Amino acid sequence: MNALTTALDIPAFDPISYDAALRDATVRAQHSFFDQHIIEDEEGCFVTIDEGDYNALPQNLIDRIVHTVPGMMADDFDEANIARAASFMSVVMDPEWDADCPF
C-alpha cells in the first residue's frame, strides 16, 4: 500500500459531545477573563479547556482547537472598553426605593 491508498483512521463527528462542550464553554466564558477553547481528543470527543489553565498553550492543544468562545469578563472601564464592559452588566433602578433613601 502506498501513501495515496492508505486509509486514515478519522473518528466520526460526535454532535452530542460538541454541543455539550459548546454549552460548557459559553457558560464558563461568562465568568472568565480567559478564552474557552473546545478541543477534539483522540477518540473524537470534544472537551472545553480554559486558556487560563495553561500559561501558553502547547502546540499539540492549539492544533486540536475546533472553536473558541472569548472570555466575557472585563475589568477595564476606560473609554475604549466601557461599552463592552457595560454590555455584560444589568442595572435595575427602583424609583420608589430611591425616593425613600435619606442621602
Q: Compute the CA-based radius of gyration.
A: 22 Å
Envelope shape = elongated
Mean pLDDT: 76
Adjacency order of strands in the biggest sheet: 2-1-3
- Beta-strand percentage range: 5-15%
Query: Biggest sheet, in brief?
Result: 3 strands, antiparallel
DSSP strand count = 3
* H/I helix tally: 4
Give an overview of the whole structure.
With 103 residues, the chain is α+β, with helices and mostly antiparallel strands. The chain has four helices and three strands. It has a three-stranded antiparallel beta sheet, with helices on one face. Strand 1 and strand 2 (46-50) form a beta hairpin. The longest helix is centred in the N-terminal third of the chain and has 15 residues, at 15-29. The chain is elongated, with a radius of gyration of 22 Å. The N and C termini lie far apart (84 Å). The mean pLDDT is 76.
Summarize the SSE layout with pairings.
Layout: H1 15-29, E1 36-40, E2 46-50, H2 59-62, E3 65-69, H3 82-87, H4 95-100
Antiparallel strand pairs: 1-2, 1-3
